Amino acid sequence: MPPALTLELLATPAGVSGVRRALRSHGIDVQLCASELVTNVIRHVGEGVPVTVRVWRDGGLLRLGVTDPDPRALPVLVAAAGAEAESGRGLALLDALALRWGVEQEAGRKTVWCELFTDAEAVAVTAAGTPETPERPGRRSPSAGALGHPSARS
């Protein structure tokens, strides 16, 4: 299915803000995940590298992909960032919000992707006010990602 939205930009802090604005209509979870993925490109690949952000619907899911030119810089889910840590929470946030996520490597690039419920399929709120979905009540157990990478989910 072709992307509903494709953004091509340079990975910069201003670019992260622009991505959030461009994805406003897709909901806060999509904005947060895209923001974290583009920020990871800045931090681990380099500021100013070209990035492509794609968003599309696939049935009741929304799929987000962020492509950068370094297939070797793979995402790593950090066990638990301490209260004083200045980084290490981005992928944990993505992991908590996404139904699943992973990495696709190709010659000269990689795409880190995630799938989320669309607003139409949004979370139901339990009596206690805790977000819950039919497919994902509470915490999921870890599984290997698209490349068998232990930090990715699929």
Q: SSE layout and pairings?
A:
Blueprint: E1 5-10, H1 13-22, H2 28-44, E2 50-58, E3 61-68, H3 90-97, E4 100-106, E5 109-117, E6 124-125, E7 131-132
Antiparallel strand pairs: 1-2, 2-3, 3-5, 4-5, 6-7
Helix pairs in contact: 1-2, 2-3
Structural class by helix and strand composition: alpha+beta
Our count of helices gives 3
Q: Shape, please?
A: globular
Q: How many strand units? A: 7
Radius of gyration: 15 Å
* Low-confidence segments: 120-154
Chain oligomer state: single chain
Key words describing this protein structure:
two-stranded antiparallel ribbon; alpha+beta; single chain; 154 residues; globular; 3 helices; 28% strand; 5-stranded antiparallel beta sheet; disordered C terminus
Give your account of this protein's structure.
The protein is of the alpha+beta class. It has 3 helices and 7 strands; from the N terminus they run E-H-H-E-E-H-E-E-E-E. The chain has helices at 13-22, 28-44, 90-97, and strands at 5-10, 50-58, 61-68, 100-106, 109-117, 124-125, 131-132. The longest helix has 17 residues, at 28-44. The two termini are 19 Å apart. Mean pLDDT is 78; it is low at 120-154.
